[in-house]
Every structure is written in structure tokens, then in C-alpha cells.
Amino acid sequence: MHRNKTLHKQSHSFQIDAAGWAVGAQHLPSPNFDARAEGTEIALLVIHNISLPPGQFGGPFIADLFLNQLDYEADPYFDQLRPLRVSAHFLIRRDGAVLQFVSANDRAWHAGVSSFCGQERCNDFSIGIELEGTDFEAFADAQYAALAALTLALKTAYPLMHVTGHEHIAPGRKTDPGPFFDWSGYEARYRLLQKQANPGQAAPDLAFRLM
Q1: Cβ-proximal residues to 9 (8 Å cutoff; 6+ apart), any chain
Q2: Is 74 a member of any domain?
Q3: In terms of DSSP H, where are the helices of 27-169?
Q4: 73-93: b or e for each residue (b if 16 or more CB lie within 10 Å)?
Q5: Which residues, in sequence order, are bridge partners of residue 41?
Q6: Which residues form the domain of 156?
Q7: Active site residues
Q8: 10 Å Cβ neighbour count for 196?
Q9: Is the terminal CB of the chain with fewer CB neighbours within 10 Å at N or C?
């Protein structure tokens, strides 16, 4: 897999180390991952939302799901999750705390059946970020701040070209991050951080929300 050689020192609290783990995030290694194919370029960032039980925030259940430790008796909704073995690379809590479950060098199981610009199996070449939230209410300002900073760190470490939503790579099957996700605000925060981190430099840019 190809990583950009130059790592610029950033003013935010995230930096991706050589093993693909974010300094500044809490690390909770999930068993739900596998290796990417040799030579894969990590070119896509996929934004999701998740809440467990649906519409409830702050509990341990998202992390437990990704770690295969979910107590299926804790809520009736969880019974349908028994066969799932899933993960995302990152989870951003409502307060902006960032948890990492899979090295960004590896393939997390976050996208499922998916296609981006004609290329199928998006897990192969993407990084997945879950935001604690739903399709039915706004995300927290702290989440956007963390997301923009994490995006910049990932862009510094990998040849990312596009950022899109789960709904865009699996239309008709998935709806997240949903209508309350502020794509314009997220992009503006990212570009401000990018400008501050690389003053006077024309850095390769990201395309946002391309379907």
C-alpha cells in the first residue's frame, strides 16, 4: 500500500503513525478486519452515522459491537445484530472523542456491498469514519471539529482523493450520514485547517461528496 512520504507537523491533536494508528485517539483494536491487497492506494474516506440502540447516545454499545462484545440481551434491538461482524476505522462520539478500532493501513468492514465511481468493494480502498448520530438530528459541533482534524491527518498520511457518505456508495441500501450532516461546514473546516497547516503551499486536494 502507498503512503505519502512527507508528514507535515500539524496544529491539531491527530497524527497517523507508520502502523496506521492515530496519535490522539483512543485505541480499541477490533478483530473485524483483514489486510488490504498489496499495492492498494487508500483513496476514499467514507462518512457514516451510528447509534445503539437507535437514537440513543453515550453508551458502550457501538464499541462493543465493533469488538464482538455486545450484550445482545441489553436491548431488544440487538437481537438482529447477532450475525454481524463489522467495524469502522474510527468512531467520533458526540463530545468529539475519537476511538480507533482498526489500523488505517488495514481493511475495516464498514461499507458492505458498495461502489464508488464504478469501483466496487469500497472497503478495499477506503477508510471508514462513524459519527455517533442518526439521520434525524444534527451532529455536534465537537464532532465536526474532530472530523476535520482527523481528515487532515489522514490526508497527510495517505493519498486520499475523495470524501463521500455511506449513502452515496450504497444508494437504496444505506442512508447515512443523512440529511442533517453538514457537508459544506465539514468541508469548510477541513480547508481552513489545511490552509493553516500548509501556508502558501498548493497541496493536493480532496473532492467532497462525489457520487
Answers
A1: none
A2: yes
A3: 61-66, 141-157, 166-169
A4: eebeebeeeeeeebbbbbbbb
A5: 2
A6: 15-208
A7: 130
A8: 12
A9: C
